[in-house]
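User:
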Amino acid sequence: MKTVKELLQDKGANVAAIAPDASALDAAQAVLEKGIGSLLVMRDGQLLGLLSERDITYKLVSAGSPPAETLVSDIISSHILCVGLDKTVDECMALMTDKRVRHLPVTENGKIVGIVSIGDAVKSVIADQQFIIEQLESYITG
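Assistant: Predicted structure:
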């Protein structure tokens, strides 16, 4: 099974971040423009929280305040689950499923080095399964 380190080597370690004092509108535009599902909320290299599409949608609606006037810090999820580079994709999927989250920041020595989404994990598992299927087909027909 592939590790998070291998997954990041394949997909890249780019991480999109936003400041806590940015507006929710800025965050929504960044998510839309980048085609991503979440932003890390950071200040001076310190991880403060995670802002997902779901946070933007649900928390803005429930707050009833205008997106341009709502700060990211008011709608972030501050309880964040992180994983290390040595975790397997299966372990990440189990954690995301159990805790009902879609994104896991990846840390090494206390620094953010990437992020893994449920989509990344599923794509990796499908690729592994496809490889096994091809190997079995080759063995059977070979």
